[in-house]
Design brief:
The complex is a heterodimer. Chain A contains 14 helices and 16 strands. By secondary structure, chain A is of the alpha/beta class. Chain A has three domains: about 55-235, 3-Layer(aba) Sandwich (Rossmann fold), CATH 3.40.50.410; about 265-325, no CATH class; about 330-415, Zinc/RING finger domain, C3HC4 (zinc finger) (Herpes Virus-1), CATH 3.30.40. Chain A has a six-stranded mixed sheet with strand order 3-2-1-4-5-6, sandwiched between helices. In chain A, strands 7-13-12 form a three-stranded mixed sheet, with no helix packed on it. Chain A has a three-stranded antiparallel sheet with strand order 14-15-16. In chain A, helix 3 (about 85-100) packs antiparallel against helix 4 (about 125-135), helix 3 (about 85-100) packs parallel to helix 8 (about 230-235) and helix 5 runs parallel beside helix 6. Chain A starts with a helix and ends in a 5-residue tail after the last helix. Chain B is of the alpha/beta class. Chain B folds into two domains: about 15-230, von Willebrand factor, type A domain (Rossmann fold, 3-Layer(aba) Sandwich), CATH 3.40.50.410; about 255-300, no CATH class. Chain B is about 40% helix and about 15% strand. Chain B is built from nine helices and eight strands. In chain B, strands 3-2-1-4-5-6 form a six-stranded mixed sheet, with helices on both faces. The longest helix of chain B is centred in the N-terminal third of the chain and has 20 residues, at about 35-55. The radius of gyration of chain B is 23 Å and the shape is globular. The chains are: A alpha/beta, B alpha/beta. At the A-B interface, strand 7, helix 9, helix 10, helix 11 and helix 12 of A face helix 5, helix 6, helix 7, strand 7 and strand 8 of B. Strand 7 (about 250-255) of chain A pairs antiparallel with strand 7 of chain B, so a sheet runs across the interface. Chain B: One of its GO terms (molecular function) is zinc ion binding.
Chain lengths: ~450, ~300
């Protein structure tokens, strides 16, 4: 529903013509509905993938505040078991996924409780802190109304001091239909717009004008959820980095690449404590010989990425940077072809068996006959894949199996060819690929 | 007693999948030295695969060969069953593994184009194919059945920087899916695969004597990752996660990262050579860098 609205802002679902939704489902020759249903499921599977548009410049270093409504309306049981419980569960997934996909980004949590805004967690780069805080949020007492403005102001205050090269975002999860604000909220919206902070709203009840206006002004997205599955999709779409904001300044950032000191002159490194747990009373720092030492001030950390507490240097490891590259070099979408277009594999003696290049599944046989009606072909290596591999390659693996196993088809050649028409594009990954070569 | 029973039941409903990625590229150093070595390695791999199958009836095995021209599945081949007869009372499944792998590898090597110059093995691609296979089996599992998967890479090739991105994508995917990557290096120490083993908490081992390969395999790689912490295994090697800069290809401790494309540079420059972004405020930064460098030296 929300997607329709984005395409045409003025037209609401109820303003469009009468839809005969049941006509989309047709029974096949045997009078079965399986075929039609399988097709619908398959389409839904690929939808998210197709929506991904290629971006040239992304806000890779993200600073995001998640503003969570903790007012009375969150106790409504339309999402099971309650709106709050459902949200907390989904947020756990979201936080894991967010840090998995954006390792050098930071996240913070703000709760809107009884017309006040309360910062639950500061901006940090480790998921553990947030997950712990979320646990405590699940049992919070839900009273009164939320204040959208107070929440935005609090997030704005923290995001203002974030360096200008970072992408700054606020994601608001609203259960309430109303907001109780101290002054005119438009002032806050103007301020956010000026700062270039992207605000997105996910409403658990219905579309709210002021929320929609906020997202339009700040280039964010707005969504009203239908059910928990739709809610999940809406939330997960925030995991991918957004296009870089115009106000975002580009700069070179100093970063440290710590290396573990296991041995010093043949001996084991001395026992030392890590800085990340030194002030943590619940989990006190342990004496260990391993750890990551800041190359600048030599303080030790047990986990990366982290910002050095004593000298402020951002400490990362090379794989952390590499983890973000797939956002910049996505695998191009495969071509959808009917099953008949696929040639039988030539290496085979029984020539009528066709198999998926990735998972070696024999296609068009057995129970999956319907799902295999369409196959997918990579435009570069010309190999055929089943629908599941297509999704796996684009959503998880981020590398085409065919292009990377057949010599001559340079695995990453498409990045060069597809980007060459853009002036600002990367001149080619060949340089970047060798970046961490050792 | 009851706890024992439930534990054994749990173990029964759990499948251990082992995917062996075998580098069969003829330009590997030890193959060029003596082609017999490849046969010897193949025998060891087959015996090792059978040993894995022998541990539990539910265990599964897959073998992928990575040659200079293509990557193929050696086992299992669902479409073409090798004729099977019981030999000397040997369990048929073992015989099947041996026959299928040898036959398939033979036909691949026979049909391979002649190698004019040594070329790299596309190991990262082969591993990504193994991941596709694992994810398919994972999807098709019956409800209530658990599967632990791992990938064992056997190679004597050099690793190549051009596959860096694919390697990293493979490692992160494996980490996400809970797949352990083990590496048995037959010739040289491989720093990229070392990183992969470290990321997915697998074992890395460099074999010093090819003759003892099977012993190494049975000792280090046969136990499932879940019970490895109870065994005395080679200590993890020191993995260097430092980045090397774009401009001079040198390993650096402190560098500058472009906020748009994440390229790494060892010195401040006003323009990114990768994405041609022009950077703001070049003023105070270089001075800062100098200062920091001094403190660096002092340490």
């Amino acid at each position: 529903m929300a997607d329709d609205e984005q395409e045409d802002q003025k037209e609401y679902r109820w303003e469009t013509g009468y839809e005969k939704t049941w006509e989309a489902i047709k029974d096949d020759e045997d009078g079965m509905l399986d075929g039609a249903i399988a097709e619908i499921i398959q389409k839904a599977k690929r939808q998210r993938q197709a929506q991904k548009t290629k971006q040239n410049r992304l806000g890779m270093m993200r600073h995001m505040f998640v503003v969570l409504d903790c007012s009375e309306s969150m106790s409504v049981p339309d999402l099971k078991p309650t709106r709050l419980r459902c949200t907390v569960k989904l947020l756990e997934l979201f936080i894991e996924e967010f840090f998995d996909q954006n390792p050098i980004s930071q996240l913070g949590l703000i709760a809107l409780k009884a017309k006040r805004a309360e910062k639950v967690t500061e901006l940090t780069g480790t998921s553990r802190v947030h997950l712990k805080a979320l646990e405590s949020l699940a049992n919070v007492s839900l009273t009164s109304e939320p204040s959208l403005q107070n929440g935005l102001d609090l997030a704005l205050k923290s995001l203002k001091v974030v360096p200008s090269h970072a992408s700054r975002e606020i994601v608001i999860i609203m259960g309430s239909l109303t907001t109780c604000d101290p002054v005119d909220i438009n002032l806050t919206i103007d301020e956010l717009k000026k700062e270039g902070i992207r605000c997105s709203v996910i409403s658990l009840s219905a579309e709210i004008h002021v929320a929609r206006y906020l997202t339009q002004q700040t280039m964010g997205t707005f969504g009203a959820v239908l059910d928990d599955a739709h809610f999940r999709d809406q939330l997960m779409s925030q995991v991918d980095p957004p296009p870089a904001a115009k106000t975002q300044h580009n700069s070179l950032i100093r970063m440290g690449f710590p290396h573990t000191k296991n041995e010093v002159e043949g001996k084991d490194a001395p026992l030392s404590m890590c800085m990340c747990h030194i002030e943590n009373l619940e989990e006190p720092s342990e004496l260990t010989t391993t750890g990551h030492h800041c190359p600048q001030c030599n303080s030790k950390y047990c986990e990366l990425p982290v910002e050095c507490q004593s000298c402020g240097l951002t400490l990362v490891s090379a794989p952390h940077l590499a983890r973000s590259y797939h956002h910049l070099f996505p695998v191009p979408n495969f071509e959808e072809l009917p099953f008949e277009a696929m040639p039988a594999s030539s290496s085979d003696f029984t020539s009528d068996v066709r198999e998926c290049y990735g998972c070696a599944k024999a296609l068009g046989q057995g129970v999956d006959k319907v799902a295999d009606k369409v196959v997918f072909r990579c435009g570069f290596c010309k190999q055929f894949f089943c629908v599941d591999c297509d999704i796996f390659i684009h959503d998880t693996l981020h590398a085409c199996v065919g292009c990377n196993t057949i010599p001559g088809v340079d695995g990453l050649v498409y990045q060069q060819s597809s980007k060459s028409d853009q002036v600002d594009a990367h001149p080619g990954p060949s340089k970047q690929r060798g970046q961490f070569a050792m | 007693m009851e706890a024992d029973q439930s534990a054994s039941k749990e173990a029964e409903s759990c499948i251990d999948l082992l995917v062996i990625v075998l580098d069969t590229n003829p330009s590997q150093h030890f193959v060029r030295q003596n082609p017999q070595n490849l046969t010897q390695i193949l025998e060891a791999v087959i015996a090792f695969g059978n040993a894995h199958l022998m541990q539990k009836a539910q265990n599964k095995l897959a073998v992928v060969s990575c040659s200079h021209h293509a990557t193929n599945f050696l086992y299992p081949l669902p479409r073409r069953q090798v004729e099977l007869r019981q030999m000397d009372g040997q369990y048929e499944a073992f015989n099947l593994v041996e026959k299928t792998v040898k036959q398939q590898l033979g036909s691949i090597l026979m049909n391979a184009p002649r190698l004019s110059a040594p070329c790299e093995s596309l190991l990262a691609g082969s591993m990504s194919m193994a991941l596709c296979y694992i994810s398919r089996l994972q999807r098709n599992l019956a409800p209530g059945v658990k599967m632990h998967s791992r990938i064992l890479v056997l190679t004597g090739s050099n690793e190549c920087a051009s596959q860096y991105m694919t390697f990293m994508n493979v490692f992160f995917t494996a980490q996400k899916l809970g797949i352990t990557i083990d590496t048995c290096a037959l010739d040289k120490t491989l720093s990229l695969l070392q990183q992969g083993c470290d990321i997915t908490s697998g074992q890395f081992l460099k074999v010093t004597q090819l003759d003892g390969l099977l012993q190494y395999l049975l000792w280090v790689f046969l136990p499932a990752p879940q019970i490895r912490h109870k065994l005395v295994l080679p200590p993890p090697p020191k993995v260097d996660y430092r980045a090397s800069c774009f401009c001079h290809r040198e390993l650096i401790d402190i560098g500058y990262v472009c906020s748009v494309c994440l390229s790494v540079f060892c010195k401040y420059s006003p323009i990114c050579t990768t994405c041609h972004t022009i950077f703001k405020n070049p003023g105070p930064l270089p001075i800062k860098g100098k200062k920091k460098k001094k403190t660096d030296k002092q340490m």
